[in-house]
Design a protein that fits this description.
Elements: H1 2-24, H2 29-45, H3 49-56, H4 58-61, H5 65-82, H6 85-112
Helix pairs in contact: 1-2, 2-5, 5-6
Length: 117
């Protein structure tokens, strides 16, 4: 039960930060998304995001900030094994499943629902 509470609180806090960026700083949704992804990437590069994931579970892995962490993690992992070219290839290997799923589900949604406009 405690793990669910922390996941809810941490995930909710990340979402509140995103909403504050939208409302308080009048950022566009694209700017807010990029800010959260870059924040997750910086935290991942500093080694701060993985402990957050261990602590909050899905509360830290579901928000978009986790995507930035995954990009950095993949780039660093491939850099260690293949050198500088790994920075480019690593980001694709670790995130490809999530990106592929998003594309497939978006395509299926486009087939099922009729867009307005």
């Amino acid at each position: 039960m405690e793990k669910f509470l922390w996941a809810f609180l941490i995930g909710g806090t990340i979402c509140v930060i995103g909403q504050l960026l939208l409302d308080g700083f009048k950022l566009t949704p694209a700017h807010t998304t990029v800010t959260l992804v870059v924040t997750g990437a910086v935290m991942g590069g500093l080694g701060l995001y993985d402990p957050l994931i261990k602590f909050a579970g899905a509360g830290a892995t579901v928000p978009i900030s986790s995507f930035g962490n995954s990009l950095v993690k993949g780039a660093l992992k491939e850099f260690d094994s293949t050198g500088p070219i790994g920075v480019l290839t690593g980001i694709f290997s670790i995130t490809s499943a999530g990106i592929s799923a998003a594309i497939i589900f978006a395509f299926m949604g486009a087939l099922i629902f009729r867009p307005k406009g």
